[in-house]
Design goal:
The protein is 19% helix and 22% strand. By secondary structure, it is α+β, with helices and mostly antiparallel strands. Helix 1 crosses helix 2. The chain is globular. The N and C termini lie far apart (58 Å).
Length: 328
């Protein structure tokens, strides 16, 4: 019953291909460990994920899904969640025993997965977070695996615990606001469409469908249950002082949610950095600190007259009041 409820509650089931098998082996079957299965309640939030989390103490399975013809990584309960997802399953899947659909290849503890890189369909934030822990599988001992698939998106913009987890794993610095492409009602108008998903300025119902289309085209969406009801009935989001958004039923909000000043400044800064990197000035290279985007180095290499061959390194600090106050 728990697995059926998990499948009913899940708005989407995504898979993230892991780059390589965690153990050195000569077995060609194990050159790629497979795809890590993740359940997502709000599919559009995947664009803000900066890592995936697993429980290092839980048991995970590497399985061959005979219906999908692909290698998956999940938990025992995760196999039931896949069986009970309504997505593209055939009628036979509802009565077919798990042992017929799934072939268990191996079992291992979640700690084996930690540190592995994964393939994300949305790569906008990769240019800002250079920490080795960013866009990897990280350990979250408090992650519940009893009725789920044993893996989750790490969304620091939408979960205070995830924000603490990112800082614990040095994905970004303690003073940096969580990265968020959202302004309370829609995808921020300045969100660059670097991955071809065309999300700029989209309200959430439109963003949800476009993210579904993009992840399906990338062969990473196994199941998607569209939200019923008009856009007015969708949950609203309120932002707290730390820049984290919390989902709230629409009837509880009397006013339109607004983006915090810190979140506005953080997003403006990321947009300006992206512009500098896309169209750099001659002789100027901008290097952003791997843990704090508010600290960067400008490397100047003059090309005229007596300064040819000289490299000047200038440290730039961006105040939290940016863009109202200029960099120092």
């Amino acid at each position: 019953m728990q697995a059926q409820q998990q499948a009913q509650d899940a708005k989407a089931i995504l898979v993230f291909p892991l780059r390589k098998h965690p153990r050195s082996t000569q077995d060609p079957v194990l050159k790629s460990i497979g795809d890590l299965v993740v359940v997502v309640q709000d599919l559009w939030t995947v664009i803000a994920a900066v890592a995936l989390a697993v429980n290092p103490n839980a048991e995970y399975l590497r399985i061959k899904d005979l219906r999908l013809d692909r290698i998956l990584v999940t938990t025992e309960a995760g196999m039931s969640t896949l069986m009970n997802s309504d997505g593209s399953a055939s009628a036979d899947d509802w009565v077919r025993p798990r042992s017929v659909r799934f072939h268990v290849l191996e079992r291992f503890k979640g700690e084996i997965l930690c540190g592995m890189k994964y393939q994300s369909p949305f790569r906008f934030y990769e240019q800002y977070f250079k920490s080795p822990q960013a866009f990897t599988v990280v350990a979250d001992p408090s992650l519940a695996v009893g009725a789920g698939v044993g893996a989750s998106l790490v969304l620091p913009a939408f979960d205070a615990r995830h924000l603490a987890l990112c800082r614990q794993h040095d994905i970004f610095g303690p003073d940096q606001p969580p990265p968020c492409p959202f302004d309370g009602t829609k995808i921020h108008k300045d969100y660059p469409s670097l991955d071809g998903s065309d999300l700029v300025g989209c309200a959430l119902p439109v963003a949800e469908e476009r993210v579904a289309h993009h992840t399906r085209a990338a062969n990473q969406l196994l199941h998607h249950s569209s939200r019923r009801g008009s856009p007015a009935t969708w949950p609203q989001w309120k932002v707290d002082a730390s820049g984290v958004y919390h989902k709230t039923p629409a009837v509880e909000l009397a006013a339109k949610p607004t983006m915090s000043k810190a979140a506005v400044g953080n997003f403006r800064l990321m947009r300006d950095i992206a512009e500098c990197m896309r169209d750099p000035m001659d002789g100027i290279q901008l290097v952003v600190h791997e843990k704090d985007i508010r600290t960067m180095c400008a490397i100047l290499t003059p090309v005229d007259k007596i300064y040819v061959g000289i490299r000047l390194h200038l440290t730039i600090n961006i105040p939290h009041s940016y863009p109202a106050d200029s960099p120092r």
